[in-house]
Amino acid sequence: LDADKFRRQGRQVVDFIADYYACIDDYPVRPDVAPGFLTGKLPETAPYTVEPDALTAALRDVRELILPGITHWQSPRHFAHFSATASNVGALGEALAAGLNINPFTWEASPAATELEVVVTDWLGKALHLPEKLLFAGGGGGTLLGTSCEAMLCTIVAARDRKLAEIGEERMGDLVVYCSDQTHFSFEKAARIAGICRGNYREIPTCRESGFALTAKALQAAVSADEAAGRVPLFLCATVGTTPTSAVDPLRELCAAVEGRDVWVHVDAAYAGAACVCPEFRHNIAGAEAVDSFSTNPHKWLLANMDCCALWVRQPTALVAALGTDGDVILKDAVVRSSQTGVVDYKDWQVALSRRFRALKLWLVLRCHGIDGLRAVVRSHVCMATAFECMVRADARFEVPVPRQFALVCFRLRATAALPGEDKLPCGAVDDVTANNELNRRLLEAVNATGRVYMSSAVVGGMYVLRCAVGNSLTEERHVREAWNVVQKQAAVVLAIKNK
Ligand code: PLP
């Protein structure tokens, strides 16, 4: 790396990014492009020889060819999925880590990186009001992975091996895992990779009355039925902030339902875990003292740019027993020294050997924003989502069929929505679920086609709902108001077509 060249090129890239953010609002949030639009514009092979100032030319390609085809996740009018909340220091932390380009798989491979990860996961755990048992300070410990799916996979294999060591490997086919029908699909993927039989994956139904949260009664019934059939309950994935509606599974009741059965309880709080930085949201993880592991994605709502998933476990030895290796010939000495000194070798807490220096970015975010700064971000998003919810509720054509949770509002046109201009709802209209779902699907399509706003959808309890997730750093109240205006305008259009 040539320092002078790096300085010059670094400035070019920083300027490029700053220019992008300065006019991000001018782009349609979701690009209007057809499949293959980019492939046809790029050469079939990489260049053999390049121009003297290849970076300048490449940045021009990014501006002219690539930017028109990206979905602008950082647009203040991106309300789809869950956010990927960005920050200056989140981006610069990524740059710092990429610049140092280290690979801290063992303590010895980079002592400061390992120790920073130990410190920063305890910092974040304390900031989120996690039980002490999950922190290094309380005998547990945390690590930084890329995604929640990895956190699920690592914890299932830890639970699996702990259980099989007790009951014998020949019982693998009897192991059962539990979740709700609202659990993120990545849990099914993780269970499959961990070797859980497809027939032993229990997706327990939820309902509107319980706010689409998993109930202890339903879990208890499923577990008892499996035990009666000679199967072995292994793992429960409870979610705090489900993907479709951000429902919260009641941790205390669920842990009580499996108490005494040695079921590993994992909490997937990929999105909503961040809210626990605010004491007023801590009740959502009441009962977490009894769980075995907890994960959340600081890249979703805590200003840590992609990617960063924090996982805490109560018993790190279970993780290491499943994922640890003695090290090949090259690493053996370092691994032996680690075990003698009791330091963490993070390669044994994850699937791969190599790893990124994510701790630097997360530390930088916590160091530069402070816990109060993170609280302010969460509160402002919740406040804007509350304002959006109020606007929806004030329009009789719409309903909010599930309570707003955190900064996610799920809403839809009622089946009985009035004709534009009418303020009374037609009496006795039949709620034709399929037709209404189709109407709302068309509404979302129309809203997104404007390019001014991007929202997403979910189907819960047979209902198609639009999802407005507030969570971008650049989003202000005026963007939320504008988003609602777009929805209202497009609703008038789709209703007019429907009522023709
Ligand atoms: N769990 C929940 C509740 C999610 O909302 C998501 C993604 O949005 C995931 C898990 C998957 O996260 P990842 O992409 O980090 O695996």
TrEMBL record:
<dbReference type="InterPro" id="IPR021115">
    <property type="entry name" value="Pyridoxal-P_BS"/>
</dbReference>
<keyword id="KW-0663">Pyridoxal phosphate</keyword>
<protein>
    <recommendedName>
        <fullName>Tyrosine decarboxylase</fullName>
    </recommendedName>
</protein>
<feature type="modified residue" description="N6-(pyridoxal phosphate)lysine">
    <location>
        <position position="300"/>
    </location>
</feature>
<comment type="similarity">
    <text>Belongs to the group II decarboxylase family.</text>
</comment>
<dbReference type="InterPro" id="IPR002129">
    <property type="entry name" value="PyrdxlP-dep_de-COase"/>
</dbReference>
<dbReference type="GO" id="GO:0005737">
    <property type="term" value="C:cytoplasm"/>
</dbReference>
<dbReference type="GO" id="GO:0019752">
    <property type="term" value="P:carboxylic acid metabolic process"/>
</dbReference>
<dbReference type="InterPro" id="IPR010977">
    <property type="entry name" value="Aromatic_deC"/>
</dbReference>
<dbReference type="GO" id="GO:0016831">
    <property type="term" value="F:carboxy-lyase activity"/>
</dbReference>
<dbReference type="GO" id="GO:0030170">
    <property type="term" value="F:pyridoxal phosphate binding"/>
</dbReference>
<dbReference type="Pfam" id="PF00282">
    <property type="entry name" value="Pyridoxal_deC"/>
</dbReference>
<keyword id="KW-0210">Decarboxylase</keyword>
<keyword id="KW-0456">Lyase</keyword>
